[in-house]
Design a protein that fits this description.
The structure is a homodimer of 332-residue chains. The first copy, chain A, has 3 domains: 44 residues, no CATH class; 130 residues, Rossmann fold (3-Layer(aba) Sandwich); 128 residues, 3-Layer(aba) Sandwich (Rossmann fold), CATH 3.40.50. Chain A has 12 helices and 12 strands. Chain A is elongated and about 90 Å long. The termini of chain A are far apart. In chain A, 47% of the residues are buried. At the A-B interface, helix 4, helix 5, strand 2, helix 7 and helix 11 of A face helix 4, helix 5, strand 2, helix 7 and helix 11 of B. Chain A binds a DNA duplex (16 and 16 nucleotides) through helix 2 and helix 4.
DNA sequence: CTGTTAGCGCATTCAC
DNA sequence: GTGAATGCGCTAACAG
């Protein structure tokens, strides 16, 4: 029941607490024999140092936090996977927080984490986040922060994203190459930098090909989104292609097309940002813009550790862009 | 840069540290005026108590850990969602650990967590976990553990699962009702309790209907699994239905059927345990056994907190079973 | 109602 | 090479 601590080890071995502490941390000023004895007993009793005590003493927690909007989403789960790989290598622990796209919740979370609980923070902001006082507070507190994917433009943290503009440009050109003329871009929350970047890429491609750009703004409520997409696809001048800025909208588009008996890609071509590998099994297999989620997670975490370990950051490491890949399937 | 602490607040207010501490924790023995003054300054300076200090002092961390095999899986992400909802209500923090189906990694994780870092543990064991010394150590240490989904039969923790046997039984009967006769069950790692329970349900249904049960054992390597399923579906006495014990095998079955131009459900009917809502968009829409993942996460966490808060557990709370739902679509 | 004191377990400084 | 003493920031027991 009782946890073993240094004091008990010291008593049992007839040594001072400090000696035991040093022996376990392989200090060079402890004799090999003593180290042996100490480590043997520690192993035998299954000693684990109390993390709160050593965190308090050393002012470091060996813990990082990941703050994301949701986890039920392949992109973010893959990111988590990448985070975990690096954190585990470094012997760090990972706290996870979900904002559920709630800006106040995001602020509360960051507030509570601001006093030593974590040595660093990875964040992808909620789609309602526009100001960033809560992030600036971290700079004041000297706690490293790395943003990824959904980053805020005007804040000075290292950022790891994909090439949203280029990927959206290419995806749009892909649709155009397949013969689409009336392409609607379905976007979410334009205050989000990724939304505006993706939209910019889409518009650039449309302009280049002298086509009229047209955006449908969707929100957080799936029923409303469904209704909006449905009415879009029922309208007289129905688009002949949909480019969904986020996975969810691509899925709803599929659903609506099925229910309206619209043929994909015959009546409507569909492509969307999505990390769902099962998209290959859709009817028809869905073309997707796949973000390098796992790599984004790994890279963001690697950079975070570089700051935590006080290594200086090359300016090239301040903004990392990893390209997305367009996976062409039958829906286009 | 420097974090505010109680001492600074006390000095600024001409109060004792303990008074400030009590005021912030709304102790009844502090005058309303003092409370006001203290809270005002704390808010102004953005004071957050150092969690390591208070954890050390109180021997509680306000943190729970979730240990799961993987996160890139709708079932586990939905569970995480449920966990987070309850933890957040309780003001608790959530550490996440992935075992990647590695039993040694699982042991290491549990070992490190065993000294105060967490107040409780939620675990779904790896598919290679057979013994449970690492879990028994928690009972000795007095740290509450709740198992969910993938539970070990012979260990005495509260368990939250779905009705694997019944759900598998019903899914099998569903296939039989649709005319299937040669149903192959694709299973993973029989040492896993859920595998054997699902298999038992399948076999029970087959026996009841005087059909010959036949199981294909798949493993962790997806390429091998694909090859095995492919050769199964190419064999002379090809099954006319597949019941996949886990989502991944159902997806591979779809993939193989498509590549072999086998019609679903004409040539082969397919059903599988899966929490993928996009299964409705498959070609054809896939029938699934959907586990109540979110509820499992919520329920397991609620029970964990009941133990943490020392409330006694009714024996009915020791083993919770939440039913799965069979969602019938076009693949059967 | 408020202050003084002690101690959680550990890492570290300073002695020897 | 080892031991004794100190303090990280907080809470709680005890005093007044």
């Amino acid at each position: 029941m009782d946890n073993v601590n240094l004091k008990q080890l010291a008593k049992e071995l007839n040594l001072a607490v400090s000696t035991v502490s040093r022996a376990l941390r392989d200090s060079h000023e402890i004799s090999p024999e003593t180290k042996e004895r100490v480590k043997a007993l520690a192993a035998k009793l299954g000693f684990q140092p109390n993390p709160h005590a050593s965190s308090l003493r050393q002012s470091k927690s060996k813990t990082i936090a990941v703050v994301i909007p949701e986890i039920e989403n392949n992109f973010f789960s893959q990111v988590m996977n990448g985070v975990e790989v690096i954190a585990q290598q470094k012997g760090y622990h990972v706290l996870i927080y979900l904002t559920h796209e709630d800006n106040n919740r995001e602020k509360d979370i960051l507030n509570v984490l601001r006093n030593g609980r974590v040595d660093g923070l990875l964040i992808s902001v909620s789609n309602k986040t526009m100001e960033f006082d809560h992030l600036l507070a971290y700079q004041d507190a000297g706690i490293p922060v790395v943003s990824f994917d959904r980053v805020l433009d005007n804040i000075d943290t290292p950022k790891v994203t994909t090439d949203d503009t280029e990927a959206a440009f290419k995806a749009t050109e892909h649709l155009i190459a397949k013969g689409a003329k009336r392409i609607t871009f379905i976007s979410m929350g334009l205050n989000l930098s990724i939304s505006s970047r993706r939209k910019a890429g889409y518009e650039k491609a449309m302009h280049k090909h002298h086509l009229h750009a047209s955006t449908l703004e969707c929100g957080t409520d799936d029923n409303e989104n469904r209704a909006m997409i449905r009415s879009l696809l029922q309208s007289k001048d129905r688009p002949d292609a949909i480019f969904a800025a986020v996975e969810k909208f691509a899925l709803i588009t599929y659903e609506v097309c099925h229910s309206l008996h619209l043929d994909i890609p015959g009546h409507v071509k569909v492509i969307g940002f999505s990390n769902l590998s099962a998209a290959a099994l859709f009817n028809p297999p869905m073309s997707t813009v796949v973000q390098p989620a796992f790599e984004i997670g790994k890279e963001a975490t690697a950079i975070l550790f570089r700051i935590i370990e006080k290594k200086t950051l090359l300016s090239a490491e301040k903004v990392i862009t990893i390209p997305s890949v367009i996976v062409e399937r039958k829906s286009t």
